[in-house]
Each structure stands twice: as C-alpha cells, then as structure tokens.
Amino acid sequence: MASILGLVEDPLTLDMPVLLETDASGKHVSLLGHLPRRSDLASTNEAQSRAVFIFRGPAGYISPAMAGRSNWAPTWNFITVKIIADISTDDQLTDEALRCTVAHMEKDQQSPWSVDQLGERYEKLKAAVIGFRARIISVSARFKLGQDENSETFEHIIGCLSDAKLKYWMLRMREAEGIEEAPASVGNPVVKSKKVEPTL
C-alpha cells in the first residue's frame, strides 16, 4: 500500500495498492497499479504525471522505560521509502493491474479469490478505475530502528517491544549493518538515510 501524491496544483493524497516490477537483473524499474478515474492523476491531460509514492513500514513509540535508562529521551522508530516515478495511465493496463493485484494479495489464501468470481459486476467496477505503470526515477529510504544504540540499550528495547514486525526490522537492520557495539546515545539517535538512483 502506498500513499500517492501527484506533483500537480492542490494535489490530493491517494492510498492505493501498487506492485513493484523488476527487470531480468532484479533492478526495480516500475510500479503497476490502478487509480480512480476521477482522481487528479487519472484525469490530467498530460501523457505522464510525475508523482511521489510513500511506503511506510512498521513504526512505534519507544519509551525511556523500554530503553531501561531514565536519561534517555523517548523516540519514534520507523521505516519510510519514497519513490518518485512518472505515471502513465492506460485503459489496456486496467485488467492486468487489477488481476495482478488481487492475485498477489490472495496468494496465501487456501482458496485464492479471482476477479472472475464477480461475473458481470467486474466490468462495471473496472470502468471506475484505470490502470497505470509508473517508471521509477529515484528511490530513497529512511530508517530509524535503534541502529545507533549500544548493545545493552538495544537489547533492553527489543525485550520490551511488543510489536513483532517492528522488532523483526530492528533486528534485521542490526544484522545487516554488522553492529556489535555502538556508542551510547542520549536523546534521539541520528536517522540514517539511504538513497538509490536506479539506472533505467
């Protein structure tokens, strides 16, 4: 699920499901999705509309009590990914976008549902949206997952954290960066940012 913000005058934010598409080498090249036909992005006369896609991962409040240190300021851990892309809407993409999205979301169901089960209603519902493919221009990500905490503080937070998804990503970031010991932080740790400029 992404928040989509068109770079147009007085834009509205849309929350819509999108699928990441890769090339043969695994490079992220585009996003496939659909938009309400009445939305700003779908109704523009431009052949392409540049937009910002914002993806938010697990996030949560971290109390000083969770850190086990009274001189440690409360903070908020989060994951945010921003993709800037050029959206091209196309009626010919609508069916593909809808079917691929449903197939992806239903893949773990014991009996996956299909749009074909809507019967005649499918064409009526499909008429209210339009498919798009968005060519990725840039990707940037911000992570604040306790990566600057010393081992004792980090382990204390992990032990007190009830959000399994946030805990998973904190541990994954710690492992990915090979952190064994970091300087103790008082207050909010520095937010690390990573930016990738894909070659398309």
Features of the shown structure:
200 residues; elongated; single chain; Split_barrel_FMN-bd; 26% helix; alpha+beta; TR_PAI2-type; Transcriptional regulator; Pnp Oxidase, Chain A
Q: Quick summary of this structure?
A:
The protein is an alpha+beta fold and 200 residues long. The chain contains six helices and nine strands. The protein has a domain at 2-67 and 75-146: Electron Transport, Fmn-binding Protein, Chain A (Pnp Oxidase, Chain A, Roll), CATH 2.30.110.10.
How are the elements arranged and paired?
Elements: E1 2-6, E2 13-16, E3 18-22, E4 28-36, H1 40-43, E5 49-56, E6 60-62, H2 64-67, E7 75-90, H3 91-106, H4 121-126, E8 129-144, H5 151-160, H6 164-176, E9 192-196
Antiparallel strand pairs: 1-2, 1-5, 3-4, 4-8, 5-7, 6-7, 7-8, 8-9
Descriptive account of the structure:
- By secondary structure, the protein is of the alpha+beta class.
- It has a domain of 138 residues: Pnp Oxidase, Chain A (Roll).
- 26% of the residues lie in helices and 36% in strands.
- It contains 6 helices and 9 strands, in the order ββββαββαβααβααβ.
- Strands 1, 2, 3, 4, 5, 6, 7, 8 and 9 form a 9-stranded antiparallel sheet that branches.
- The protein is elongated and about 60 Å long.
- The two termini are 23 Å apart.
- The C terminus is likely disordered.
